[in-house]
Design goal:
Blueprint (H helix, E strand, L loop, with lengths): L8 E8 L5 H17 L3 E9 L11 H11 L15 H4 L10 H5 L8 E4 L5 H11 L2 E4 H12 L3 H15 L22 H33 L4 E7 L5 H9 L16 E4 L8 E5 L9 H6 L1 H8 L3 E7 L5 H14 L7 E6 L6 H10 L4 E2 L5 H18 L1 E8 L6 H7 L1 E7 L3 E8 L1 H12 L2
Parallel strand pairs: 1-2, 1-3, 3-4, 5-7, 5-8, 8-9, 9-10
Antiparallel strand pairs: 6-7, 11-13, 12-13
Helix pairs in contact: 1-6, 6-7, 7-8
This protein binds guanosine-5'-triphosphate (GTP) and magnesium ion.
The site of guanosine-5'-triphosphate has 22 residues, from helix 9.
Length: 450
Amino acid sequence: METKPPTPTAVLVGLQMPEVDDIAHEASLDELERLVKTLGYAVVGRVSQRRDGTGAAAVLGSGKLAELAALTGGTGRVGSMAPPPRSKARERFGDKAEATGPEEAETDAAPRPRFVIVDHELSPSQIRNLERATGAEVLDRTGVIVEIFHRHANTREAKLQVEMARLKYVAPRLRESSGGGGRQQGPGAGESTLDLDRRKIRDRLAELKEQLEAVQRDSDHRRSARRDQLRVALVGYTNAGKSSLMRALTGSQVLVEDKLFATLDTTVRILQPETRPRVLVSDTVGFIKQLPHDLVASFRSTLTEALEASLLLFVVDASDPTYEAQLEVSRSVLREIGADAVPSRLVLNKMDRVDEAGRAALLAKHPDAILLSAHAPGDVSALRDTIIAFFEAEMVEDVLVLPYARQGLIGEIYESARVLSEDYDETGRVLKVRGLPGAITRLRRSLAAT
Ligand SMILES: Nc1nc2c(ncn2[C@@H]2O[C@H](COP(=O)(O)OP(=O)(O)OP(=O)(O)O)[C@@H](O)[C@H]2O)c(=O)[nH]1
Ligand SMILES: [Mg+2]
């Protein structure tokens, strides 16, 4: 008979810096808890401490460290050189009354939390110290995010990008594997397993970089074919409702989930009902605070989609009390990739969860924002009108003459512009068109080419 493996459990650790208020601190731990749940772990406790910085050797002060170790069954001391302990004897360490869940204190078999997850980026030595003191496996926020991206990546490009980010995260955190004596026999003797592992990682990174460049040349090609088209990109914090809006606007079946980082790949679909010229809508990867730098870099190409859009819709979960901080995170990531020059509109989503007073406050603060719910068809259709109006304002009118010998281009003209009228004279078809200036320039170029 098959039994399901027990859900791994984790304790969260948060450091509250002087400039962070209680609400923001709790919200950050709530978010970490959602991230950890996305990984499939159950959170059984939280340990928080006010600190002036994140640099302490074992992250927490000695009292708090003992409190944490009592939960996880560690010694609470960093000093021991022993590998992270996981023995039954250690698991009995500490006062049972302090155990997190009541069920833990009751049965002997109840496992101690296997993971300690810290809401900050830690140095490799901090991770090591904390593992020694707690006897648990230690992950930091970055490690959790990298792992989620790793599990959710679907397309070849996303997989390559995530593997690169993951190796870059893992490499400095490698330590001598225990039991092997740290020395490699045979070829490469004299090189420690650690050096060997690091060399392997470097080689693999070089290989990945090459593969990624090939894939990206391909997608650059596809993207340039979409140049001068009417493109709008949905960007914003994870779980804000980008994919829900994408579905509603384009009738497509993109994944919508109440999970952080449900979407890792950019998808492009046509705005429905279709317009002339048609509008392309892109759904993109969500942002999160402290998005690991390597992941930002590796998603640059995915986000190029956003960079090349004519309009960015900044989607925000307006029902989230920390929505402003989330908006700021999204803005700063987009600044980092150079997308802050693209015209944008603020879309305050999930208004169905906001009461009248909240609505008035939001409007007072963001008078230009579009307030809506992705679940309300009327709201979505109004958003569609706003998108169309934006492009209308950008479009210009012009007259193109299509010589009789070049009739093959008619399809391209209809695709990239709206044909207002058609006449015939001795030179050819005379078309009055309306489209984006870039598209009309490109059409003129095609017509001029022989
Ligand atoms: N109440 C309410 N829930 C919404 C609304 N829009 C989206 N949601 C819910 O919010 C959750 C996240 O929605 P998604 O569309 O997957 O969010 P996303 O921005 O694509 O998230 P990532 O892909 O993880 O970055 C889902 O459970 C949606 O059903 C809304 O207007 N109102
Ligand atoms: Mg999504």
